[in-house]
Design goal:
With 177 residues, the protein is mainly beta. Helices cover 0% and strands 64% of the residues.
Length: 177
């Protein structure tokens, strides 16, 4: 189908086990995931229940033929809901996470500081969503960029990364267990 609005998103995920110990080695060249999102709405020539199964995505090439670019398995999706399709990993946008500090402040209270570097090797600027799971009762006490607490245990940044450049996010979080 054509003329269906598609939102493309680059997401860089952290993991909660990063917060469980002392300083570690940098986690370099981690993958940035690529997602496509469509709204299952009648105005987009959809708006019907979509059955669980494999969705294949094709893109028109310069000669007009269709080129397979990825597939994912979706769950049953009712009409008027969004469908998120994981297309795989970006090969030209990478990330690196480095833990800069870990301190026990008091009994059950810890602070840790992280640096997240996103490198863009594309010929255009990109926007990347950084998703950091944070355990316990937490608060950000220092941050280089604006952030959102999207869920009880999720710290999220949306950053622009220039073409052939990088963006570095630094943050310090205090956690209580």
């Amino acid at each position: 189908m054509t003329d269906i609005p598609i939102k493309k998103e680059l997401r860089f995920y952290g993991a909660s086990q990063y917060y469980r110990g002392q300083l570690g080695t940098p986690l370099s060249n981690q993958k940035v995931s690529v997602f496509l999102e469509i709204a299952n709405k009648e105005q987009h020539r959809l708006g019907m229940p979509l059955p669980k199964g494999t969705v294949r995505v094709y893109k028109a090439s310069s000669d007009g033929s269709l080129q397979f670019i990825g597939e994912d398995i979706i769950d049953h999706t009712p009409k008027d809901e969004k469908v998120k399709i994981k297309m795989g990993e970006a090969f030209d946008v990478v990330g690196e996470r480095t833990q800069r500090d870990w301190r026990k402040i008091a009994s059950g209270v810890y602070e840790t500081e992280w640096e997240v570097e996103i490198r863009n090797h594309k010929k255009e600027d990109v926007q990347v969503t950084i998703v950091e799971p944070v355990p316990g009762d937490w608060e950000v006490i220092k941050s280089s960029h604006p952030y959102d607490k999207t869920e009880a245990h999720i710290l999220q940044y949306v950053v622009s990364v220039p073409k052939d450049g990088k963006t570095i996010v630094n943050y310090r979080v205090r956690m209580r267990w």
